[in-house]
Amino acid sequence: MRVFVLLFNSRTDNEGIHTIRLSDPDTGETRDVVLMFESEDDATRFGILLEAQDLPSPTVEAFDEQEIAAFCQDANYDCRLIPEGTLAMPPETNLEETDWQLEGRVAPSPEQAAEFSESELDRIRRKLEGLL
Predict the structure, then answer these.
(1) Phi-psi sector, 20: left (phi>0), alpha (psi -120 to 50), beta
(2) What's the rounded Cα separation, in Å, for the pair 46 and 34?
(3) Distance CA 33, CA 108 (A)
(4) pTM, entire model
(5) Contact partners, residue 1, CB within 8 Å, separation at least 6
(6) Residue 1 and residue 61 in contact, taking contact as beta carbons nearer than 8 Å
(7) 76, 74, 66, 75: which is closest to 36 by C-alpha?
(8) 87 Cβ contact list (under 8 Å, min separation 6)
(9) pLDDT 10s digit of each residue in the chain, 132 long?
(10) Environment class of 84 (CB within 10 Å of its CB; exposed 0-12, middle 13-18, buried 19+)
(11) Phi, psi at residue 40, to the nearest 5°?
């Protein structure tokens, strides 16, 4: 059966598949789950909802269900089939860091991120002081 998944940086060396992270209430174990949509329209709607959460625009790609299941097994992910017409909603929170990066971007080191945050705070402080 053909299914649709969401990819970031599709067809590049930096390609990433969209997963959601779910916790098993019994064991507390956290698992990454690839959503396989039966309907391309449902996958597209889900992608639009992700964009509304300030994530980059994903690409909807068609694959054979067995191919995605094999990928998930190799990557130690779970997969879940989303039946056509199901209104799947992304989680309200997103990961701060992903396993992939946006095309052409390099994630800042923690030191760089801290410096940027401090300089941004200084800029805001100066603006606020200027209002007095």
Answers:
(1) beta
(2) 13
(3) 27
(4) 0.66
(5) 38, 64, 65
(6) no
(7) 66
(8) 42, 45
(9) 999 999 998 888 888 898 888 887 888 888 899 999 999 999 999 888 888 888 888 999 999 999 999 999 999 999 999 999 877 776 655 445 555 444 444 444 454 444 446 666 666 666 666 665
(10) exposed
(11) -65, -40
Per-residue tokens: 122: 């200084």
What token pair was written down for 114? 């801290």
How far apart are the C-alpha atoms of 12 and 100, rounded to whole Å? 11
What are the φ/ψ torsions at residue 14 (nearest 5 degrees)?
-110, 30
Q: Are the C-beta atoms of 4 and 61 separated by less than 8 Å? A: yes
| Residue-range domain boundaries for the chain | 2-97
Residues 6+ apart with CB under 8 A from 61: 4, 5, 6, 7, 10
Q: What angle do CA 58, 85, 79 make, to 5 degrees?
A: 55
Helices and strands (H, E) in the chain, number of each type: 3, 6
